[in-house]
Amino acid sequence: MNNVQGTYTEVSILLVEDDDVDAMAVERALRQQKVINPLQRAHDGIEAMEILRQKEVGRPYIILLDINMPRMNGLEMLAALRADPNLNDSVVFMLTTSKSDEDVTSAYRKHVAGYILKQELANGFMDVVRMLDHYWRIVLLPN
Amino acid sequence: MPLRRIRSIRYKLFAGVGLISVVGLLVASTLLVTYEMRSYRSDWESDLQTQARLLGHTNAPALLFHDEKYATENLATLRLKPLILAAAIYDAQGQLFAHYGDAVLPERPGLEVIQVIGQQMELFKPIVENNERLGTIYLVGNYEWLGRLKNYLLIVLLICSFALLVSAVLVWGLQKTITQPVLGLAEVARRVMEQRNFDLRAEKTTADEVGYLVDAFNDMLVEVGQSTQALEQSNRDLALALTSRQQLQQRFQRVVESAPSAMVMVNREGLIEMVNVQAERIFGYARAELLGKKMEILLPQRYRAEHPGLRTSFFADPTPRSMGAGRDLFARRKDGSEFPVEIGLNPIEMEEGLMVLSAIVDISERVRAANRLAEHAKELERSNKDLDTFAYVASHDLKSPLRGINQLASWITEDMQDNLPPSVDKHLQLMRSRITRMERLLDDLLSYSRVGRVENKIGKVNVADTVRDLFALATPPPGFKLVLGDDLPVLTTPVAPFEQVVRNLLANAVKHHDKHEGTIEFSAQYDGEGARYLFSVRDDGPGIPPEFHQRVFNMFQTLKPRDEMEGSGMGLAFVKKVVENYGGVVNIESDGVRGALFRFSWPAQWDDHSTKGAVK
Asked: Do A119 and B403 touch (CB under 8 A)?
């Protein structure tokens, strides 16, 4: 967290992921990259929507969203998010193992900022964290 | 009988001529005889008158002088005239004065008269001298008129007979010239009629009207013969046509009877005219229960009202057609049960008029089979979906824990850094390599299961460029080179599957090569008959022994342990599945000593119909 600008507000991360190892991998990558932005974890879509509606995540925030999850999967949650007038400006990156065209298309139709395949990441989630660190420095997010 | 009438010409002629002669002769004879008899009588009368006057004259003196003796002698001279039978002289007072002959004499003289009594003619004549009546003379003559008449009649008879004879001869002659040709004609006509032989001809013997008649008759015979022949021919033709028509009808009935499907022939009024044994069988009616009945009894109640209208429209445009195409059609059995049918309608021109012959096929079994098939297809689709789901599960749900394990292993390595005992470090490395292998296995399994279920984009593939790129992607060691054949085509084809096949074959050739240097040849050959290209990938690697040629195309088959040669064993199985999915074949040629040649065929043209069934 070097080079903080005056107007810079800390960006929160909401990680929606049912797999503990993947969640650990993200945390580990953040730690290794010395990114100390607040991280919230939800295990499925329903929990994530609750957290968002309770405003437990400080704005601005970005969401890292898995697709295959119990109860409410990532695409269903995305639909709920876009249908919610308070939350439909959320910036979402899909972080999933699903290569299926339908999933990719359907995610972008719901205006995700990016679609990242977990298995293509050579260095664990290090590249994702590095990308995000650059992303929120450059991109102005909704407040 | 016309014959008798014709023959009677001769008799008519004969009788006519005879009658004419006899009648003529009779008339002539009667006139002659009458004339003769009259002249005979008048001769007699004048003879008697003369005799009487003569006797009166000679006996006048005797009367004057009453000389009876002289008178008697004078009368006696009548002996010279034997035809005078008797004579008498009466005096002025009417007393018998003298007489001659034996005949009984009248007492008193009658009036002056001449009369015939029986065969005698008698005469009273006054004897007048110087205007003084002296007496009366009486004469009786033998007037034999009957004998004379008899003689005349005999003569007439003879003449008539002779005339008849002559006329018979004449008629005979006439007949020769007139009757004979006519009778000959009649005879020929009779034979013609009896023998039905129109080749017979009447002989022409005269040049007269009969001759003309004969000519005309012969001409007519020719005409009649020809027209009879024509008539007989046409009769024969007609009979033949009739029999062939009957045969046709019989044959038609036999064909209908032996047809494997039920057949019902219906007339314009919708009445059943003919059924076969199959129709009896599938409808459950006996033939007698169907013939002449309304065919609507074979329909379910709900179709009966509209059917006559449909039939009318069929007869308005009678062309063969199948009925109820595209909709379920049902027929009704005698017991009221219904069954699905397929019906072909054919108009048939019968002698009784236009009919419609319907062939009815009971398709219950087919419908059941189709339903079963549809069920199976649905089941198959479901099981394919299950497989799809399984593949997805395999790729995701099996892979994510695997990736988790991988990460955990790498974290242990990271966290322990140099504090890890060498054996543990080695085991961790082995673990991670197994994990990678398993991930690849799952990936390949997923793409294998997707062959044929994923719609692939059609695009232009420049085979030469594609092969060159894919060869580079296979990361061959520096000593490897690619040799491309001439005339590699540019294909319009589903791009991804083609590339997958080529990539796998090239990767296979590179990966399994046992030397540092190698040559891989890629060539193509057009097979015009199958409209396909035959592509060959030839390497100079270790080859594959023939006994393994089939095995390498099976799933998860490798010829070397995976620790020695990393591979899922899915590559060639994948190639085979893709190629076969596009209707091609793949095979290997290799002696297992050096080199292998893989060949696969690929459609040269792409049109949606050719592989629509194969690619969903």
From this structure: yes
Of A21, A28, A68, nearest to B396 by CB-CB distance is A68
Asked if residue A12 is part of any domain, the answer here is no
Instruction: Give the closest-approach CA distance of A87 to chain B in angstroms.
Output: 29
Closest-CA residue to B579 (of B557, B603, B595): B603
Question: Percent of chain A at pLDDT above 70?
Answer: 92
Q: State the angle between helix axes of B399-416 and A20-32 in degrees (0 to 180), rounded to the nearest 10.
A: 40
Q: Are A96 and A67 in contact (CB under 8 A)?
A: yes
Compute the radius of gyration of chain A from its Cα atoms.
14
Q: Are strands B132-142 and B120-129 parallel, antiparallel or unpaired?
A: antiparallel
- Interval B391-441: pLDDT, tens: 767 666 777 788 888 888 888 888 887 788 888 888 888 888 888 888 888
**Is A108 inside any structural domain?**
no
Within 10 angstroms of residue B503's Cβ, the number of other Cβ atoms is 20
ipTM exceeding cut-off 0.85 for this assembly:
no
- Tell me the whole-structure pTM to 2 decimals: 0.41
Shortest distance between the Cα of A19 and any Cα of chain B, in A, equals 8
Per-residue pLDDT at B117 exceeds 70: yes
Q: Quick: pLDDT tens for A16-47.
A: 998 888 888 888 888 888 888 899 999 999 99
Domain count, chain A: 1
CA distance B451 to B199: 93
Return the top range by mean pLDDT from A51-65, B247-261, B400-414, B424-438.
Answer: A51-65
- State the DSSP string of B15-49: HHHHHHHHHHHHHHHHHHHHHHHHHHHHHHHHHHH
**Each residue's pLDDT tens digit, B180-201:** 777 778 888 888 888 877 788 8
* B436 lies within 8 A of chain A by CB: no
Contacts of B204 (CB under 8 A, 6+ apart): B181, B211, B214, B215, B218
Domain contains A56: yes
Between the CA of residue B275 and those of B83, B266, B295, B296, what are the distances in Å? 120, 9, 11, 14
CB contact under 8 A, A97 and B396: yes
For residue A26, give its domain range: 1-6+19-62+83-90+114-136
Q: Among B395, B400, B411, select the one facing A19 at the smallest CB separation.
A: B400
Q: Considering chain A, what is the average pLDDT of its residues?
A: 87
In this structure, are residues A58 and A38 in contact, taking their beta carbons and an 8 Å threshold? yes
Inter-chain touch A21–B408, beta carbons under 8 Å:
yes
Give residue B81's pLDDT.
Answer: 81
Say yes or no to pLDDT of B251 above 90.
no
**B522 Cβ contact list (under 8 Å, min separation 6):** B467, B482, B483, B484, B485, B488, B502, B506, B535, B536, B537, B538
**B485 secondary structure, DSSP code:** P
* CB-CB under 8 Å, B392 with A100: yes
The verdict on residue A107 lying in a domain is: no
Q: Which two tokens stand for residue B93?
A: 């007072």
Residues 318-347 of B with CB under 8 A from A: none
DSSP B613: T
